[in-house]
Amino acid sequence: MPGKIVSKEEWLAARKELLVKEKESTRAVAALHAELRSFPMTEVTKTYTLNGPAGPTTLAQLFGNHKQLIIYHFMLPPSPETACRGCSFLVDNLPSTLSHLNSRNTTLALVSRAPLPQILAFKERMGWDFPWYSSYESDFNYDFGTTLDKDVRFPVQYNFVDVKETRKGDMPGLSVFYREGDGKSEEPIYHSYSSYARGLDRLLGTYTLLDMTPLGRQDKGDDASPVDWKYHDEYENNIEKDVEV
């Protein structure tokens, strides 16, 4: 039993106390978001060309006709390694449609270092519709802090701090870009925000729901991460059963 059993009156008193803390947290998050709206940006001066289903695609083209572009750096390296389970769990938690983001002049895409055929094969397996591009043989992931290699970028850094030189490979991260205009002319692109590691937890709607339950996230240990989850097609039966009424 995760919590003690109390009277309805005791429960209500405890709930009101918790509500005060929840409102404090909500106000703190709102203040943080307000700060992000005026956060400084830096111009992207390098031209990045990625590979998509339609062929070579520039970073500018990923915007479509929107002002804002969110990139999730999905850990899928150019090797026989399988796709990151934590990244797969995160993508399962992204919006099922980009229509709402698009209505706010924003779009989203995934980028991985694996060659495009490897990406498309896994995308088909997962049944995702998100735009997904290959940065194979590009500096894109290195420049935005999600691929570590001391022979390419030194000192080795992740999440804005130095890490061991021996640390190498892909890491999870998210980058946000902004531009003026509607893509009809060549406007400067600006890097406005990046987030890594536990900073990505806010994208996990599954955790948001579980955090409201008595059993919580049920992770394995204090330092557990989304890698404890399976690919969504690996769960037993892989069927969502309707609740019998």
Could you please describe the fold and organization of this structure?
This protein is α+β, with helices and mostly antiparallel strands and 245 residues long. The chain has helices at 8-36, 59-62, 85-92, 99-102, 116-126, 140-143, 205-210, and strands at 42-43, 49-52, 55-58, 68-73, 106-112, 132-134, 147-148, 157-158, 161-162, 169-170, 173-179, 189-196. The strands form four sheets. The protein has a six-stranded mixed β-sheet with strand order 1-12-11-4-5-6. Strand 5, helix 5 (116-126) and strand 6 form a beta-alpha-beta unit. The longest helix is centred in the N-terminal third of the chain and has 29 residues, at 8-36. The chain is globular, with a radius of gyration of 21 Å. The two termini are 27 Å apart.
Q: How do the strands and helices of this protein lay out in sequence?
A:
Layout: H1 8-36, E1 42-43, E2 49-52, E3 55-58, H2 59-62, E4 68-73, H3 85-92, H4 99-102, E5 106-112, H5 116-126, E6 132-134, H6 140-143, E7 147-148, E8 157-158, E9 161-162, E10 169-170, E11 173-179, E12 189-196, H7 205-210
Parallel strand pairs: 4-5, 5-6
Antiparallel strand pairs: 1-12, 2-3, 4-11, 7-10, 8-9, 11-12
